[in-house]
Specification:
Layout lengths: L4 E5 L8 E5 L8 E11 L1 H7 L16 E8 L11 E4 L2 E3 L5 H4 L10 E2 L11 E5 L4 E2 L6 H4 L5 H11 L7 E5 L5 H11 L2 E6 L5 H7 L3 E4 L3 H6 L4 E6 L7 H6 L1 E9 L11 H5 L4 E4 L5 H14 L5 E5 L3 H9 L6 E5 L5
Parallel strand pairs: 10-11, 10-13, 11-12, 13-14, 14-15, 16-17
Antiparallel strand pairs: 1-2, 3-4, 3-8, 3-17, 4-5, 5-9, 6-7
Helix pairs in contact: 4-5
Length: 340
């Protein structure tokens, strides 16, 4: 019997999304099928719609911050059952056999599959993923708010694990937006002394409500100089050029500057400033399934949730316009309103 999924697709660059029906083929033996309840919108969806990374295949159904219930389970899928609520993020599969997968770094698998790379994602009534990438959602987390955790959330939580950030450290978060606002909550609950960097003084009070102990204007050279050599870890969540010399200068000896925001221009580095203080510059994508589970458990324990705005799925173009205009505080989630 022919399967039929319904979603919203763009058929070429700069085109608004419109209803689209497609056949996903047979369910893979190691896959699960999920009925979408909620799906977030991420800047990566916009990048894929605009083919900014040169790997978009049209038509494209975006959406990779999915929360929904399992409706079908492949014969080789494990640990999931029909009716279970799960989340799916950027990744929808990995080979499970390479050294990265076998080491627990499935997110680094060279053959990894993206939910919306060459396949259709969560702006739809249903979506599929390999079973390890459909992560059970703890009952205490609100499904209407949790979608952004599976991409934006794990993107900023994974570096805390990878860099072995300690609760005794002073840390900084550059950018109080879709990624940065979650990073503030994570790091403050982690126990760190948190510095929020923003170019807008209007976000000062909001940053403190989200968990920052201090707020620094990243464009104020005097404020930046005041914290020179003070921070053990600085997380960059923005994609715009900054005064990188000043930013690196805030790092303490052995301090780390870590990028999760895809800064569009080369970052100039004076190597001597790294050598003499033994500083590190690094970056990371999202995280492994085990890291996602750790993040969800941490969120459940500390009642952490993204700050979201809700749109119905049918208003997807309005939601995208809202995101492109930079008006979102801080993540958009869309509720499935497809006819049953």
């Amino acid at each position: 019997m022919k399967n039929s999924f319904t979603g919203y697709a763009s058929f070429k660059k700069d085109e608004t999304l419109r209803p689209f029906e497609f056949d996903p083929g047979e369910l893979g033996a190691d896959q699960v099928e999920v009925a979408v309840e909620y799906c977030g919108i991420c800047h990566s969806d916009v990048s894929m719609l605009d083919n900014d990374w040169g790997m978009t295949k049209y038509p494209i159904v975006p959406g990779h911050e999915v929360v929904g219930k399992v409706v079908a389970v492949g014969s080789h899928a494990k640990n999931l059952r029909v009716g279970q609520r799960v989340g799916i993020g950027w990744s929808s599969g990995s080979c499970l056999a390479c050294k990265h997968c076998l080491s627990g770094d499935q997110n680094l698998c060279p053959q990894g599959e993206g939910v919306i790379v060459g396949r259709h994602g969560g702006f739809a009534n249903r979506v599929r993923a390999q079973w390890p990438w459909a992560i059970p959602l703890p009952d205490s987390l609100d499904p209407a708010k949790s979608g952004p955790l599976f991409c934006g959330g794990i993107t900023v939580f994974n570096p805390i694990l990878q860099a072995n950030v300690k609760s005794t450290e002073r840390v900084g978060v550059i950018g109080i937006g879709g990624l940065g606002h979650m990073a503030l909550s994570f790091l403050s609950k982690w126990g760190c002394e948190v510095y929020a960097f923003t170019s807008s003084d209007t976000k000062r009070d909001e940053a403190k409500r989200l968990g920052a102990h201090h707020v620094v204007n990243s464009r104020d050279s005097a404020q930046m100089a005041k914290i020179a050599g003070a921070l053990d870890f600085v997380l960059v969540t923005v994609n715009v050029p900054l005064d990188w010399k000043a930013v690196i200068g805030t790092l303490a000896p052995r301090g780390r500057l870590h990028f999760v925001g895809a800064v569009l221009e080369p970052v100039p580095v004076e190597v001597f400033s790294l050598i003499m203080a033994q500083r590190v510059i690094s970056g990371s994508p999202t995280g492994s399934p085990v890291a996602v589970v750790a993040m969800l458990d941490f969120c459940a324990r500390h009642a952490i949730a993204p700050v979201t705005e809700m749109f119905p799925m049918s208003k997807v173009n309005d939601a995208l316009d809202h995101l492109r205009a930079g008006k979102v505080r801080y993540r958009i989630v869309r509720k499935n309103d497809f006819a049953s």
